[in-house]
Design goal:
- The complex is a heterodimer of chains A (284) and B (307).
- Chain A contains 10 helices and 9 strands.
- By secondary structure, chain A is an alpha/beta fold.
- The longest helix of chain B is centred in the first third of the chain and has 47 residues.
- The chains are: A alpha/beta (284), B mainly alpha (307).
Amino acid sequence: MSTIDAGAALASQGTPAASSARSAAESTAIEIRGLSLTFQSADTPVVALDDINLSIRRGEFVSFIGPSGCGKTTLLRVIADLETPSAGSIAVNGVSPESARVNRAYGYVFQAPALYAWRSVMRNVMLPLEIIGMAATERKTRAASYLSMVGLTGFERKFPWQLSGGMQQRVSIARALAFEPELLLMDEPFGALDEITRDHLNDQLLRLYEQTGKTVVFVTHSISEAVFLSNRIVVMSPRPGRILEIIDNVLPAGRRLDIRETTRFLEVAHRVRQALRAGHSYED
Amino acid sequence: MRTDAAALPAGLRAGAAADFVHRIGPVAVIVAVVIVVWYAAAVWLNAPQVIDRFKSDEKPWTARELIDATWSMERPVLPAPHQIAQNFYETVFQTSIESKRSLVYHAGVTVSATLLGFVFGTVLGILLAVGIVHSPVLDRSLLPWIIASQTVPILAIAPMVVVVLGSIGFVGLFPKAVISMYLCFFPVTIGMVKGLRSPDPLQLDLMRTYSASSAQVLWKLRWPAAIDFLFASLKVAIATSLVGAIVGELPTGAQAGLGARLLSGSYYGQTIQIWSALIMASIIGVALVALVGLLEHLVARRMGRPG
């Protein structure tokens, strides 16, 4: 159903009415059309992504969900220009992913914290700021403010090995936020954490999203996480990786963790589960 | 021992003493065994000469006299440990440092060549590794040559280096440092190629998301990730660098340095002199490796490593 939305948005972009085209382009963060990606492995080519069509508006929180091998991480990596598609088109902020990457348009949070062991927490967060050549004093205030946002004030001088897994992942989120990208790409950032920590970080992430109004693309394999966080949920299926369904989340903004016990939440979760199940029967 | 420890005010002292015994004990036992075996070997190896001398003097001799004589020869096949210790003490502490007979003077000459060669070798090793990691062409073309370079015996190369450099006006320290460098760049290159390639794909992807330049990737990721590898290589390199410097002193006409000391000792059958030069070389070797270890420890602490 949202694929139809995407089609409409594309159509309006194609019209000669320049103003509406511009507004459509300005409100679109990511535009993907007919995108495929085939990995050339030694024996047989593996179709990781097949005919992906997706349009993500600015300020949206969109989750990709699906079983392992459905290409959700690959799709995120294509958006980040960490993989190159074999066919189709993709625009990030109206330009190619490569230009977007060179313009430092996004912050990326990996599955593992990927902190640099030889840098203190503070200097890990300052790393992207050093690379973009920000002045030292500004780097410090910027890093300190994002560390406080993820609740790590007082840990600036610690080193990664001195932190728990959840704290390390929070450092990596602060690091992704530190250069203030409009777009946040998150690849199962809480996948390796225990449920209590994960709940806490989900809550924090949602508050952060509501405060900053960034566009977030979030990969997960947890239904409850996807439903709790997202405006839209993109359900994917494996072999070949494709989009099964895009579900609009009817839950209102300003969600708190206890919303997960409400009937409405369970209904949305049920829809997602059904869509995932359809993907499996389709595969069999 | 036990009662002494118990008499100490703090139980901690006893613990420390036990720890000391625990650490030093095994080493002390080995040293004692080596010394006993050494004295026995000195008797065994030097006895034929001593017996010949006694026979030519045609006087009767006791076992006691025989043993004393084997442990106090001027040019023994194997000098006794106390003879080496005495010679070492005399040439280190009782000889003016400026004298050509001073072991400290010769050690100083060798150490300066070692350190210069070590610095050259480290810089060359790192530059080669950076080139190899960044350029597939260099990776394919350079590495086989680097490995081949180490299969040529250093004793065959050393005289050529001395002659060639001598003919263009480089004598003394520099040719020795070059020979030393030739030996010690190798472990640095091999270690650093591995070290610079050690960051995991995620850490490299992260740099790509920042669209960092390859110089930034080198300085902020590859280099710090390679530090452990670098120090492991440097410990090997400084030891081989010392060997290189000593070998480099053999074909230089034997003017100064521990190598010259070894060479002149073997010309004149001064085995005691050879052995004290060897002892000095091993003390220097241990000290230099320990120095690199200390530096490693300081760097590790700065990089936030535990312990």
